[in-house]
Amino acid sequence: MTRIAFAGDRQSAVSCLSILLESGAHPDALLVSGPDRATHDRILREMSGLPSNRVLVGREFREPAGIELLRSLDLDYVVGVHFPYIVPDEVLDIPRIGVLNLHPALLPYNRGWHTPSWAIIDGTPIGATLHFMDSGLDTGDIVAQAELEIRPEDTAHTLYGRLNQLEVDLFRQAWPLLASANPPRQAQSAADGSSHSRADLASDSVRRLDLEASVPVKDLIRTLRALTTNDRGEAAYFEVDGRRYTVQVNITPEDGE
Q1: Using CA atoms, how far apart are residues 128 and 227, in angstroms rounded to an integer?
Q2: CA-to-CA distance for 110 and 126, rounded, in angstroms?
Q3: Which end of the chain is more exposed for a tag (fewer CB within 10 A), N or C?
Q4: Residue 70 neighbours by CB distance under 10 Å
């Protein structure tokens, strides 16, 4: 029987935990986001059915008591789905097979943050990847991945929604490989791909629109698509008389009306 700790947040984590439970795999511990970040911690707790002493909240998994708990469980895996914390080496070393992460990108492209936005801006491939975690940022060995076509009408927001569904589909397909206790591992090339920090998208060089600039329409549309997320604080903007105006777009193909 595969012994796992499940770490996650967001709807994707709920869907992936459902897949595990349906397969008969019940987590031995649950790691959820702290109150400042959590969106789906309550439902994950309810689904897991675990007592409070098997639930680690926020950064508790990095503290001595949390590490002691995880070490005591003889884990094969820690499975992470949109778990928003850096996992230190002392936790990475705990499970027998490894710590896994489900990432909304086609690694090695778009390691890090805001993967749909940068795929649109940079014109890089996009998809979902299940990979082992190591001490780098999304640099560990790949278990499975699937590519997603970026549509002309996609904004970062719509693309992210489709990526989330692809992540869940990929996890459903990959779980039997993980349950075998001998999953495939493909090393990433350190020389290939791309990486972005959380702060990169907030840069004025990315978001600020120069009203006097001459740019191809396709480039302007690409920028607006990439900066249309569920957060207006990430939108493109321009300024008139010291006042800022944000811009987001909605693109509909004619046959979709």
Answers
A1: 20
A2: 8
A3: C
A4: 21
CA proximity to 27, closest of 44, 10, 9: 44
51 or 255: which carries more pLDDT confidence? 51
Give the three-class secondary structure for 84.
coil
What is residue 181's predicted lDDT score, i.e. its pLDDT? Answer: 87
Q: How confident is the model at residue 190 (pLDDT cuts 50, 70, 90)?
A: confident
Amino acid at 30: L
The upper half-sphere exposure of residue 232, i.e. CA atoms within 13 Å in the direction of its Cβ, equals: 4
Residue 65 CA: distances (Å) to CA of 4, 5, 9, 36: 18, 15, 22, 21
The whole-angstrom separation of Cα 124 and Cα 122 is 5
Average pLDDT of the chain, as a whole number? 95
Tokens of 247: 């811009």
